[in-house]
From TrEMBL:
Cited Pfam families: Glyco_trans_2_3 (PF13632)
EC number: 2.4.-.-
Species name: Vibrio cholerae
Bilayer topology term: Multi-pass membrane protein
Keywords from the named record: Glycosyltransferase, Membrane, Transferase, Transmembrane, Transmembrane helix
Protein name in UniProt: Glycosyltransferase
GO MF annotation: an example: hexosyltransferase activity
Pathway membership: Glycan metabolism
Top EC group: transferase
Locations listed in the record: Membrane
Amino acid sequence: NESTFKKLCYAEYKGFFHIGMVTRNDRDAIIQHGTMTMTRRSVLEELGWADWCICEDAELGLRVFEKGLSAAYYHDSYGKGLMPDTFIDFKKQ
């Protein structure tokens, strides 16, 4: 049994990934972020990784686009992230 909060989180995430990311991909307006981002090793070696940044995935995405490279969203999932159990955990995230 999941809490109402967790059900709301799932609904929000589902909308983001199943609608928002698909639409962004169709319009070549994708953003790079989060769990299961796949990046070519050569690109990561060339552009580096911002371990100083709490949003290091999005920061890498900016580097990718500034370099003139592209990104794509693939709807199939190859792993899982963890959703917060409570609103307090959500705020910490």
